[in-house]
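Retro notes (design track)

What went well: tokenization of the new backbones is finally stable.
What didn't: we kept losing track of which sequence belonged to which structure.
Fix going forward: every design gets posted as structure first, then sequence, in one message. First example under the new rule, 98 residues:
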């Protein structure tokens, strides 16, 4: 099971709006599909993603083909995605989300 932090919806909406404005609906749809496949992969094999920082409970997974990644942590029921952010965004962005 995948649980998303409530702010991830806002993160995703902003990214999709940007891609739709800049490249059209097709590009926004491609980002969304790629993101969801990456989330499913993280849920199935969380150990394939490296810790976001040494000793951190959060793992970092990329969105292939796009300059974005998301942070998640393993829980007893699956994973919880806490933040979706641009690769050049400040590394502290969203790190306080639980």
């Amino acid at each position: 099971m995948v649980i998303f932090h409530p702010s991830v919806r806002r993160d995703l909406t902003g990214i999709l709006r940007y891609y739709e404005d800049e490249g059209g609906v097709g590009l926004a749809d491609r980002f969304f599909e790629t993101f969801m496949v990456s989330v499913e992969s993280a849920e199935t094999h969380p150990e394939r993603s490296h810790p976001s920082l040494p000793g951190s409970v959060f793992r970092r997974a990329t969105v292939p083909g796009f300059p974005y990644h998301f942070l998640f942590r393993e829980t007893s029921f699956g994973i919880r995605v806490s933040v979706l952010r641009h690769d050049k965004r400040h590394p502290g962005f969203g790190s306080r989300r639980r």
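Added context from the reviewer: The chain has one domain: 2-86.
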